[in-house]
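Internal tracking record. Fields below are filled automatically when a chain is submitted to the structure queue. Please do not edit lines marked as system-generated. If the sequence contains nonstandard residues, flag them in the REMARKS field before resubmitting.
Queue: standard
Priority: normal
Entity type: single polypeptide chain
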Amino acid sequence: MESTIEINQLFYQYEKELVLENVSLSVPKGAFLAIVGPNGSGKSTLLKLILGLLRMQTGQIYLFGQEIHKFKDWQKIGYVSQKANSFNTGFPATVFEVVASGLTKKLGMFTFFKKEHAEKVLTALDAVGMRPFKDRNIGELSGGQQQRIFIARALISEPELLILDEPTVGVDAGNVNAFYQMLSSLNKEHGITLLLVTHDIGTISDRVTQVACLNKQLHFHGDVEEFQQLQREDVSKVYGHEIHLLHHNHEHGGVLN
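SYSTEM-GENERATED OUTPUT FOLLOWS
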């Protein structure tokens, strides 16, 4: 099966602190992978390495079959961080303008905005269910709505891989299921490979196709069905403390805490 991301024997340390130890991971094309683990487990560092924001020390990373230091086609990759949690609500831009700004890298700063570009914005907003809000100021939206807009902004360049770092930070608990359902639709209906760092594995377990448990080392990587069969004690070893894994409930959700 064709891999979107291939990681081999990855090590990384900050000064003398080893953050990632011998991590090998393959993300097949079309997968929806959730990476879970306790705070300080190396999840964010792993994302930064995949995105080329940190220089590799030991190991190999391949993106779409190409070594990362040779990879140039970054528009194939969309990234959404925890922006909603710290977004400036007074920022004077409409939803349409924020999403349209995602075309800047592809088109250049001074390219004339054409009708076809406006249609791309609307298509991206449709994909996240936010077209009715296109003329609203971004600062007027809820945290969950803002995250949908940032995802639309990432989608406008038509990425094949979308990476999300704790995207439900700032999302109201009552809307988390709807948010994850939207991500599932992007994966299944649009064929986008998704890589998601989350603490909400109980809520999202019926949406993803694979789960990876990371705590410096990769302790588990497999299909979500295999993950659901793990003993609670096995998952607790990864977290270093007792956890309670509740599988997805469409009305009330679930938690990993």
